UniProtKB/TrEMBL annotation:
It comes from Salimicrobium halophilum. The chain crosses the membrane at residues 115-137, 142-163, 197-219. InterPro entries: Zn_peptidase_2. This is Zn-dependent protease. Keywords: Membrane, Transmembrane, Transmembrane helix. Pfam families: Zn_peptidase_2 (PF04298).
Length: 224
């Protein structure tokens, strides 16, 4: 039974989350907002309304490759979202601007996540080698170091959750207050944002499940 639960978390949950976000995005990328503003226009308006004139908006190739670059102060929107006027595009653009607002206001969780980037990156790269080495060589201390490094990567995933949910909340507030969407468009916009958030939740759960599995394996090694 425990194996089935683990299997569901590791494989089924991420696939479901990805499918959900793609289907929701596809559906509402075909529905225009009442304001008929492109994603680029939505991002620029919200940025300007918040005094973030120093943050630029650029197009980036790909689908759902949208992101905010805090180092260069750039909101990058995928081609469709940048040029087309849709509820999905408006939601994504506003979400990324939400990160820019977080950056400007020095949102605590965003600062914490940024500080974790080098540690989490290093941890995710080396942890698996330390864990495998510990298993193959029967060295529990090496295995433990692998768990510690992997835990840093898991912490990054967990800290990402409040950052993403807060950005979505900011996005909804901005979209409504600026008149980009009407009240009757809020529900569909929330569906897009919630579907995207589920991918982060799924990733965090998978990482946490893996961490717990390694911890139990470590306990088993020491009991033997």
């Amino acid at each position: 039974m425990e194996f089935l639960i683990y299997f569901a978390i590791i494989l089924i949950l991420p696939l479901w989350a990805q499918s959900k976000v793609k289907s929701t995005y596809k559906k509402y990328s075909k529905v225009a907002t009442s304001s008929h503003m492109t994603g680029a226009e939505v991002a620029r308006k919200i940025l300007d309304d918040n005094g973030l004139y120093n943050v630029s908006v650029e197009e980036v190739k790909g689908s759902l490759t949208d992101h905010y670059d805090p180092r260069k102060k750039v909101v990058r929107l995928s081609t469709h979202n940048y040029h087309e006027a849709s509820q999905a595009g408006a939601a994504v653009a506003a979400h990324e601007v939400g990160h820019a607002i977080q950056d400007e206001q020095e949102y605590a969780f965003l600062k914490f996540r940024s500080a974790l980037v080098p540690v989490a990156g290093f941890g995710s790269n080396v942890s698996i080698f330390l864990i495998l080495g510990g298993l193959l060589l029967g060295m529990s201390q090496l295995f433990l170091f692998g768990i510690i490094f992997f835990a840093a990567a898991v912490l990054f995933q967990l800290v990402t959750l409040p950052v993403e949910f807060d950005a979505s909340n900011r996005a909804m507030t901005q979209l409504v207050s600026t008149g980009i969407i009407r009240n009757d468009e809020e529900r569909s916009t929330k569906k897009v944002l919630n579907a995207a958030a589920m991918t982060y939740v799924a990733s965090a759960l998978v990482a946490l499940a893996e961490l717990l599995r390694f911890v139990f394996m470590f306990i088993g090694m020491n009991e033997d």
